[in-house]
Write a structure and sequence with these properties.
CATH superfamily of the largest domain: Cyclophilin-like
CATH topology of the largest domain: Cyclophilin
Structural class: alpha+beta
Radius of gyration: 19 Å
Number of helices: 4
Distance between the termini: 31 Å
Helix content: 10-25%
CATH architecture of the largest domain: Beta Barrel
């Protein structure tokens, strides 16, 4: 499932589970889901809420400018969760200790869109690769496919809108650019981002103890293969 921030919120489905206070930044979006608007402090809110380990929360899913909380069926919102939802002291950036270095084969058949993107950015392919691999990225959130990371940190000069015509099949392991994000496709399937390279890293394996390689807040560096 892909989670994105939405322009508006929906009224709560079950009043007995507790209404948000007037002007609150959170709203119920389904019977068991509530969304907290977070802006640029998404990872800070996500980390703070996860640290509380509240028993009524089944899952916490960071998205683009918001956090979605799934409440266990039949559970009410506790006073501790209400306080956390309006807590203003979580705006400090979150720095994860997990740093992943991911080897990438750039360009050619592995990255068929790299040459065009480099030309549009006014640079040669080598310069594009150097700029893309010279920065550290942060996993802002996961979505679209299980384990697909939306990576923040793409240099502004490398931003590019989605392709006008999505591909029917993007190979698993493709490193791609879409808007201001960089991403990696964990599985093959359709996709509308620009493909600049390929990695052999396995981003999602349901048989691993930790199925997802990258988690929100993790840091990523791309290493040209």
């Amino acid at each position: 499932m892909t989670h994105h921030s939405e322009p508006g919120f929906y009224p709560m489905a079950k009043p007995e589970m507790g209404q948000p206070p007037p002007g609150a930044a959170w709203r119920w979006v389904s019977e068991r889901g509530l969304r907290l608007a977070t802006g640029d402090a998404t990872l800070a809110h996500y980390a703070a809420l996860a640290k509380l380990n509240l028993p009524e929360i089944e899952d916490i899913i960071p998205a683009d400018g918001s956090v979605l909380l799934i409440v266990h069926r039949g559970e009410a919102v506790s006073a501790a969760l209400r306080q956390a939802l309006v807590e203003a002291s979580v705006s400090a950036p979150v720095v994860s200790t997990a740093l992943h270095e991911i080897a990438v084969e750039y360009g050619g058949a592995a990255g068929p869109d790299l040459a065009e993107l480099a030309q549009q950015a006014g640079m040669d392919k080598a310069t594009y690769i150097n700029r893309h691999s010279a920065v550290e990225y942060t996993v802002a959130f996961l979505g679209f496919q299980p384990g697909f990371p939306y990576l923040r940190g793409l240099p502004p000069g490398l931003h590019a809108p989605r392709r006008a015509s999505p591909r029917v099949r993007v190979p698993a392991g493709s490193v791609a650019v879409g808007g201001g994000y960089c991403g990696i496709y964990p599985a093959s399937g359709p996709g509308g981002w620009h493909l600049i390279g390929h990695t052999g890293a396995v981003l999602f394996d349901p048989l691993r103890a930790a199925p997802t390689l990258l988690l929100p807040g993790d840091r990523v560096r791309f290493v040209p293969a």
